[in-house]
Design goal:
Chain A: One of its GO terms (biological process) is rhythmic process. The complex is a heterodimer. By secondary structure, chain A is an alpha+beta fold. Chain A is 35% helix and 22% strand. Chain A has a single domain, classed as 3-Layer(aba) Sandwich (Glutaredoxin). In chain A, α2 links the parallel β1 and β2. Classes of the chains: A alpha+beta, B alpha/beta. β4 of chain A pairs parallel with β6 of chain B.
Chain lengths: 111, 588
């Protein structure tokens, strides 16, 4: 599963098509753990690169709100939930695999 | 064994603290429950009762031991779970409202999740920790943790996190059950969960032998505690799971010297006059149609008559059939059934496996608490197991019953073979009293003979009795033992008639002799009186002569005296003496 960073591939087409849709993203993290910090940094970078001005990111610290964990069916952390557009998608991990994040957000199809 | 262990626990400081599961029988096998504050693994194939067992652990904990529990389901939704156990009488919603149970369904779907890098299962920990803290849980179930492996692909992370999870659970001080699917080959679980759970592993199994399925349970491993190592059958029914620890190794049971009547006075008489020992086992064997069921029905009726409870396991006939048939020999069991003293439990032997029968019997006994039980007939159990299996089952049943001081009567059908006396399911050596009802065919008719082959600890008759079934009931009659051999039935009747005739004839002859004697006596007596009269007359005559002689003598003496006086002129005042005096006077 050697993934290459393909973030630069044909991003403009998608941006053009989905420009009008606002991205609602929720990132669940566990305080300031290394994975969480990395996830926040990585996600922010991806969003800034690919969804500039077109997204709404909420970062939730589950330590502060333990009840949300059950409601949102969270097991693995950090986890990103894409509420809109389209189907709800869940992404777990520190968001270091940009290609997978983009795929998960529907910003990139397989080529 | 288990009881003594429990008693030792408080004094023995180092012994492992245990959490009772509340599941019938399981606590006995594990000598008190599963290790407290540690995780236990329950593994087994699909459909062998893992979820139910773990759920019962939670529910019983909440209901009996007042220990709240968290059930984290990775497979079924909470509503499904609640519905599944509603049939067992567990109301999970209510328990959840009372904050005694918390159900949490963990949903993982690989297709919905994209893995984008390093992650951990902190979410699960937070969830679990919150659930435990919110109700103060003492018990936790994770069912089935292995589903994580199908939902998430990073096995290295998962394994590390699992290890952390078990440490987390231990730190929380909760007694946990983790279920796991049985893996291929020899491994207990598919993902090797057993390597994380090292304290207690219970293996469930569901096997089909001869088209009959039996669930079994085995404690594979239990660190720091003794436990039963055998496979124990268990039953899932309307009361949940019951495991039956069916082998008791000890023979140190209490014995009773009280006696209990068989209901047939003549049979009691054969058994030293008082019947069976209480808590003993009785085997009635015989060929078809020899009245085994009738004997057991009598025994049942007698038990109920004494206001004791009797449980009748019928493997052949339906209860109504038995009641109807027994009316024909003058016992009505219906009133006892109505008053609740007698309970029938009819089931086909093929309904379930032998062990299941045993568990069912065990359960019913626990429930009904009878004084006597009847198994009619045990022979039919052969259809669901081999002879040795039936024997081992009966051994365990007898063991159990003797512990409970319950008298048991088995009936067994013996086939018409030459050696039928030896092979009644091989239990004849185990039972305390063995009665054999046997056909005696003679003179164109079939009669029943009853023998007591053995009866431990009491004087018993060695005689064959004829066993008679009439409208009025059962009875035993002495068979006729004569020069012509053993006679039964009409031959016996004929012989008895013949004897009676003989007696009458002899009586007549005797009375005739008596009369003759009387006559002789009267004759003799009259003769005697004649002779007496004769003797009297002779005596009188003799007396008369003697008297006359005397008189004559006196007169003569007198005369002589007078003459002498006259001659000598002697004064008159000298008295007249008898001869001697006269002589002396003569000398003077």
């Amino acid at each position: 599963m050697a993934e290459k960073d393909q973030s630069s591939l044909s991003e403009d087409n998608y941006l053009n098509e989905q420009e009008q849709q606002m991205y609602h993203l929720r990132l669940f993290v566990t305080g300031a753990s290394p994975n969480s910090s990395r996830a926040i940094t990585n996600l922010k970078y991806i969003c800034e690169t690919h969804l500039k001005g077109n997204y709404d990111l909420e970062i939730v610290d589950v330590y502060q709100q333990p009840l949300i964990v059950e409601r949102e069916q969270i097991i693995a952390l950090p986890m990103l939930i894409k509420k809109a557009p389209g189907m709800e998608r869940r992404l777990i991990g520190d968001m270091s695999n940009t290609s997978k994040v983009l795929k998960g957000l529907g910003l990139q199809t397989e080529n | 064994m288990t009881k003594s262990h429990k008693k030792q626990q408080p004094t023995n400081i180092k012994s492992l603290p245990k959490t009772p599961t509340g599941i019938t029988g399981l606590d006995e096998i594990t000598s008190g429950g599963i290790p407290q504050g540690r995780p236990t693994l329950i593994c087994g194939e699909a459909g062998c009762g893992k979820t139910l067992m773990s759920l019962e652990f939670i529910v019983r904990g909440a209901m009996i031991f007042n220990e709240p529990g968290v059930f984290m389901a990775f497979e079924e939704k909470t509503d499904e779970l609640a519905m599944n156990v509603a049939s067992l009488g567990f109301n999970l919603y209510e328990l959840q409202e009372q904050k005694k149970v918390k159900l949490d369904h963990v949903h993982i779907d690989r297709s919905e999740i994209e893995e984008t890098g390093e992650y951990d299962l902190e979410g699960l920990f937070i969830r679990l920790g919150h659930a435990i803290d919110s109700i103060g849980a003492k018990r936790v179930v994770l069912d089935t943790l292995e589903n994580l492996f199908s939902g998430l692909s990073n096995e290295i992370v998962l394994r590390a996190e699992l290890r952390r999870l078990f440490t987390f659970l231990k730190n929380k001080g909760v007694t946990a059950i983790i279920t796991g699917e049985k893996g291929d080959g020899g491994s207990l679980t598919r993902q090797g969960l057993e390597e994380y759970v090292s304290d207690c592993v219970i293996l469930l199994d569901h096997r089909v032998i001869n088209q009959i399925s039996t669930r079994r349970l085995r404690v594979v491993k239990y660190r720091g505690s003794q436990h039963g190592t055998n496979e124990y059958p268990f039953l899932i029914d309307e009361d949940g799971i019951s495991v039956l620890p069916v082998t008791s190794l000890g023979l140190e049971k209490a014995v009773s010297s009280k006696r209990i009547s068989s209901g047939i006075p003549a049979l009691d008489y054969m058994l030293g006059g008082q019947g069976f020992f209480e808590g003993s086992s009785i085997l009635v064997s015989g060929t078809a149609g020899t009245g085994k069921t009738s004997i057991s029905a009598y025994f049942a009726a007698e038990t109920c008559k004494q206001k004791k409870r009797c449980l009748y396991f019928a493997f052949e006939e339906s209860p109504n059939q038995i009641i109807r048939n027994m009316r024909s020999i003058n016992i009505d069991l219906q009133p006892y059934v109505n008053s609740g003293l007698l309970r029938f439990h009819a089931s086909r032997p093929t309904l379930y496996g032998l062990e299941m029968h045993l568990v069912a019997i065990y359960k019913l006994i626990q429930q009904f608490k009878p004084d006597t039980i009847i198994l009619d007939p045990i022979t039919n159990l052969i259809t669901v197991g081999s002879v040795s299996e039936v024997k081992s089952m009966l051994v365990r049943l007898i063991d159990f019953l003797q512990n409970e001081q319950i008298t048991v009567m088995f009936t067994a059908l013996s086939l018409n073979t030459v050696v039928n006396e030896q092979t009644d399911e091989g239990v004849s050596s185990l039972v305390d009293t063995w009665m054999l009802v046997r056909d005696i065919e003679h003179n164109g008719e079939r009669n029943r003979g009853l023998y007591i082959m053995k009866s431990r600890g009491m004087k018993h008759s060695n005689q064959v009795r004829e066993f008679i079934i009439t409208d009025k009931g059962l009875d035993l009659v002495d068979v006729y033992l004569g020069p012509e051999g053993v006679l039964t039935g009409s031959a016996r009747e004929a012989q008895q008639l013949k004897e009676r005739t003989g007696v009458a004839l002899r009586d007549f002859a005797v009375s005739r002799k008596d009369k003759e004697i009387t006559r002789k006596r009267t004759m003799l007596e009259s003769k005697i009186s004649n002779l007496q009269a004769e003797f009297e007359s002779v005596e009188e005559e003799l007396n008369r002569i003697y008297y006359e002689d005397e008189l004559k003598q006196q007169i003569m003496d007198k005369n002589r005296d007078e003459i002498t006086k006259m001659r000598r002129g002697v004064k008159e005042d000298i008295p007249v003496k008898k001869k001697s005096n006269g002589r002396r006077s003569n000398k003077l």
